[in-house]
Write a structure and sequence with these properties.
alpha+beta, 7-stranded antiparallel sheet, Pnp Oxidase, Chain A
């Protein structure tokens, strides 16, 4: 009888240590991580903070052959709905690429003072409206762009997916896959 009890007790301990406890612990961590990652307001606040600290960001577009192009851009202040605006020359390569393929990515990071990064995938649209352009006029345009009202157009990017790593907000990539916390946007 003692052998039988010891055998069952040993089997019970083995199952407890090898299966039940790790499952319980991983579920606790998964729940904690899921709450941190899926909190939409925290993700947006963490992204907005990083984006707001940057004077420049990268705009990535795709050309007609499928190659990506990246350039440094000076974004307008971020809108509440996370819409991003830029100005560009109406005959620029990026304007042509956006007209052919509106899928873009905008990347924000400060590599001198690492705090994380933000990548926003979205749909870009060229806004060729003089009234909107005049309302978004920047002071330096007159100094650097002759006839800016006829040369410049605006790029409006409506976000579809936002990924963020922000150390202050404790938003990090997955420990195994490094996939960043993200949210998706729904637009009518």
């Amino acid at each position: 009888m003692k052998k039988f009890d010891k055998l069952h007790f040993g089997l019970f301990c083995f199952l407890l240590v090898s299966c039940v406890i790790p499952l319980f612990i991983s579920e606790c961590f998964a729940q904690e991580k899921k709450e941190a990652v899926l909190n939409r307001d925290s993700v947006i606040a963490a992204a907005s903070e990083i984006m707001g600290m940057q004077n420049y960001c990268a705009l990535i577009t795709m050309d007609s052959t499928g190659l990506t192009n990246v350039r440094t851009m000076n974004p307008y202040p971020l809108e509440a709905d996370m819409t991003i605006w830029f100005a560009t020359n109406r005959v620029s390569r990026k304007a042509k690429e956006i007209k052919n393929n509106p899928n873009v990515c905008v990347y924000y990071a400060d590599h001198k003072n690492p705090s994380g990064y933000v990548a926003i995938n979205g749909k870009a649209e060229i806004i060729d409206d003089k009234e909107v352009l005049v309302n978004k006029k920047r002071e330096y345009w007159e100094q650097y762009v002759n006839d800016w009202k006829n040369v410049l157009v605006l790029i409006k990017i409506v976000p579809q997916k936002l990924e963020v790593v922000n150390y202050k907000y404790k938003l990090y990539g997955d420990s195994v896959t490094w996939k960043s916390p993200f949210i998706e946007f729904e637009h009518p």
